[in-house]
Amino acid sequence: MTELRIAPARTRNELTTFLAIGQAVHPGPKPSVDGLEHELATSASTVFLLAWRRAEAVGAGVGKTSSVGDAYYTMARVPSACRRAGVGTALLAALSERARAAGRGSLIGRLREDDDEARRFVEKRGFEELSRECPVALALARFDADARVLPGVEIVSLAERPDLIEAAYEVHSIALRDVPVGSEAPSATPYGEWLAETVEAPGALPGLSLVALLDGKAVGWSGLAELAGQERTAENLLTGVVPEARGRGIATALKVEQARRAREAGFLRIETVNDETNAPMRAVNARLGFEAEPIWLLVRGPLLAARK
Q: What are 243-285's pLDDT values in tens digits?
């Protein structure tokens, strides 16, 4: 069998191939090539790998520092015609080396609950289910809700108030601590990386990323970014409220205002995902008309030995 070669995707053509493999395995919205280039330029831990046999790309893998524990976020994608030939294992081994170089001791990734072949693959390599993730989507053409007026609460965008960017990051960091991911709460990425993703990336939407002010103080945050590969679709990055301001309807007000503004800006759909145990936010989304999509599993496992 022809030797397999694993190499980083760096050129625009290679990144286009990387995205095409991901689309072939799991169709749907994906980052753009511009977005991948921006991420490589702003995140030292991120890598996009391609697996090659001669001149044919037969697999793709992404690796980056995870927000959960000591894990390295890893996804290996192999088209069905190229499976059972060692491609996925080779990609995971290469990504394990990247994880070691980044000082990480485990791998974490996602797979569709109904992808039995992928589940068997990771289970054989020591991966275990960490949590179940529930994606939902809101069709903005059917969304019909008036802006919510809450006493003492003002909702503004980062485009309107760029002076609130650091305050938004602080709210994001605090709220993230209470987002359930199995038995561990995720931690926020460093400010510079969050800024690059949320405000400066090609798909960033500062005009639709909102901060809630309670008596002038930032207490709520809802980020939004545009997804490529599907017409006018946006992804909610996180909606959260600091503990002392919860129970006032601020999260719902942020979601409603974001949906209203997104529809006015010409977007057709907003996607988001919640851990199965995050009952409060799942209830908010259900009330607003978000509809369930196929479940994803978050799995975690050991680093693989280096390829010989």
A: 999 999 999 999 999 999 999 999 999 999 988 888 888 999 9
CA 106/CA 100 separation, integer angstroms: 9
Q: Minimal CA–CA distance to 214: which of 187, 247, 173, 176?
A: 247
pTM: 0.86
Strands (E), the chain: 4-8, 47-53, 56-65, 71-77, 106-112, 128-139, 153-157, 210-214, 217-227, 233-241, 269-275, 291-292, 296-302
Task: Give whole-number Cα distances, 6 to 40, 53, 91, 117, 159, in Å.
Answer: 18, 9, 7, 22, 41
CB 31 within 8 A of CB 233: no
The two three-digit tokens of residue 56, written as one number: 């044919």
Distances (CA, A) of 127 to 12, 130, 186, 276, 277: 33, 9, 19, 19, 21
Sequence-ordered strand ranges (E) for 81-142: 106-112, 128-139
